[in-house]
């Protein structure tokens, strides 16, 4: 009887076991996810944004990590950064995504050395073959978009709860971190900062555990069982969401200040676009 009760207690905790156990996979590799395109709510808002009347030409030189934060590793010195170092690529992607590609004309500046070197190769090759075809001049940007990841605050909020009775217990815990990005648009003619926005995204981590510790069969046999699961929101996805929200805010701010014009559908006002 005691063994049956103990077995029932163990099976009760199976709901908390990581998903690849319950799907019948013999290993994690069999249950691995395929690569997929990340489509966040901010991404869809940016993608479906009304187009611009005239597409401004912008340049992105760098979008750096200014936090200086390192990954937390207990008892080990870590040299890995806490946030992604690919902010420049994420910002360029967000600018090109805006309005389904109907907003910004982004010119290459982050890899300008490679671009100039390739143009020199083309020019020298044409000269060797006596070809008079000249290269078109590079586009110059009227606006430079700059900024960076300016804040990464860990353990802004944390908590949990648990209960235990007759050797059976269950616990849950959570933690909130936040990442903050700053984005500004600068006029290349005057050097004036035309627009500046800051956005913040929460990074949520959650964990749950279940355990059994009981003596059965006249206290001569011990049954001990534990399982748990933790889910951590991707920091890179959080940075991307913050950057996309910043681009949306910058577009709206530029429209309000008259630097560009949003082409709203007939009968819609700017307040109706979230």
Give the key terms.
single chain, 274 residues, alpha/beta, 7-stranded mixed β-sheet
**Structural class determined from secondary elements:** alpha/beta
CATH architecture: 3-Layer(aba) Sandwich
What is the arithmetic mean of pLDDT?
A: 79
CATH class: Alpha Beta
**Gyration radius from CA atoms, angstroms:** 27 Å
Succession of helices and strands: HHHEEHEHEEEEH
Distance between the termini: 61 Å
Beta-strand proportion: 25-35%
SSE blueprint:
Elements: H1 2-12, H2 19-22, H3 41-47, E1 57-60, E2 63-65, H4 87-97, E3 105-108, H5 112-128, E4 143-165, E5 168-187, E6 193-216, E7 221-232, H6 235-257
Parallel strand pairs: 1-3, 1-4, 2-4
Antiparallel strand pairs: 4-5, 5-6, 6-7
Helix pairs in contact: 3-6, 4-6
Protein model, in words:
The chain has 274 residues and is α/β, with parallel strands linked by helices. The protein is 27% helix and 33% strand. Strands 1, 2, 3, 4, 5, 6 and 7 form a seven-stranded mixed sheet that branches. Helix 3 runs parallel beside helix 6 (235-257) and helix 4 (87-97) crosses helix 6. The longest helix has 23 residues, at 235-257. It is elongated, with a radius of gyration of 27 Å.
Provide a compact summary of the structure.
This protein is α/β, with parallel strands linked by helices and 274 residues long. The protein has a single domain, classed as ABC-type transport auxiliary lipoprotein component (Rossmann fold). It has six helices and seven strands.
